[in-house]
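hey so i finally got around to running both of the ones u sent me last week. sorry it took forever, my laptop kept dying halfway thru and i had to restart like 3 times lol. anyway pasting them below in the order u listed, first the sequence line then the structure token line for each. didnt double check formatting much so if smth looks off just lmk and ill redo it

first one:
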Amino acid sequence: MINGRNIKIITDADGDKLVLINDIVFKGKRNINWDEVKVYLKGYVGDFYQIEKNAEIVYIGNELPEEYTESESRKALMGANAKAKANAATAIPELIQIATNEEFQENFKKKHNKNAKNGWYRYDVRFALPIYENSILIRYNVFNARLLINHAENGKKYLYDILAIKKETSKPQQ
């Protein structure tokens, strides 16, 4: 478990939960140090967390740090979305806790026959990062993402990656 995190789960005006990440650990939009993110993620290996909606236990295995930081989907991220993924790493326990909208998919790739023998699960999550101007908090940017969880040969479910990170656009007032 990684200590000293300033993270809260809140409920928005629509009654949906989101993770408020108050400290930006990985700064910069252009030059995220993904090796630092990988080292940070290694601090979770061996831990497990529970999804509140369905009481499923999700483990953090040895594959997460590498997949999270080196996947093709991560390499395609740029700007605010790359910074969002890097900093989402600081809120893994809370993101797993608030996961919703479970979707199952069979495993079709031979390379995943062991680690996803029993298929893949995807869950929706939301998180917010603070935006500062001259050290003053002016707002939060809210992001949607998908947790990718594999159901391994040993019967356990493991967080594999966080995908499809996208900033929410503001909703017009009605």
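and the second one:
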Amino acid sequence: MEETSVAGEESRGIRFTLEEIAGSVGDFGTIFPIMLGVAIVCPDVNISHFFLFLAAWFIIAGLYYRLPVPIEPMKAIGAVAIAGGISGGEIVASGLIIGVLFLALGLTRSMTWIGDRIPKSVIRGVQAGLALMLLKTSIGYIIPDPVFAAISIAIILIFFVASQRTRIPDVSALLVLFIGLGVGIATQGMPPFRLIPLPTLILPVSTDFVAGIWDLALPQIPLTLANAILATSLLTFDLFPKKGVDPDRLSGTIGLMNLISTPLGGFPMCHGAGGLAAMYRFGARTGGAGIVAGILILIFAIVFAPPEVLTLIPLGVFGALLVFVALELGKHSAKTESYLVTATVAILTLVINLTVAFIVGMILAYARKYWKEKQGSGPASPS
């Protein structure tokens, strides 16, 4: 309790200490694999614009919240894109749909009411299903390049163990990316230097909105409600009791960042409880960590301006990174109150799609609740 109180006092200002710098990279292991993976399978997107807007919103969030509130790519949209490939127009359409929805929910202060009506077991199933999709995709990268995959996995495991036992930040994602780039430059030569191209307005067509709603937005919405907003808000009050962030404020910034960024080439973004926990664990206590993270990501935006950079990185590196993103996402799915619902959603996600799995999961969870009440067990919230 005393440590939490101290953290709350420290969070009043913005600091740039070594601890803040270490904490700033705490969430990079999830961010980079998703962003890079999408850029590889979706040739009509610009990876430098992904990083540019992510950097900008990290800095804005640091200044606005004055806490280490992370900015993350939306995992459901990223997983679907990596697994099957989608167009840039569909990404923009999903970002606009989600942006309008969460800005409206934040302004009307409706977040908690809606979040309470989505069964947790369904959300856990979506997490497990996304993990399975990412694992399936990662195999496609690992098989043709097993050597770099093995090296990358070993590095990630070493850092994971070290970060669990010490305060060394897990920068394994950055390290394996740098190694991959180094090998690519040594074998293929240095790519030409180019400035980041200016973002241009992307206008989705009607078919983009159909796919954006069905394939991307619907699977993403429950995850954003549960993890990016409700769980993140709860954790801010746990860690910073005097400056905790209510769900509606988080919903508002998610809405704004997507409405502003995605039409200009940014990837759909949200906050995240896991990212906040990771940044805090490695020393982040103020918005300074977010500002530093934004500056570091901006450097990546400049480095990745030439599209040729993506071809330099061995496929095994991406495969290894996706394995650990999948494990990080999937480990939370075990915290369910109904393995039947969670497993059903996960399997349907893998064999059909996320939206069908979510709808079936909702029906099954509420049917389970009804059955339990009918059997005389008393009122029970769907799980």
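quick thing i noticed on the 2nd:
The chain has one domain: 2-188+205-331.
anyway thats it, ttyl
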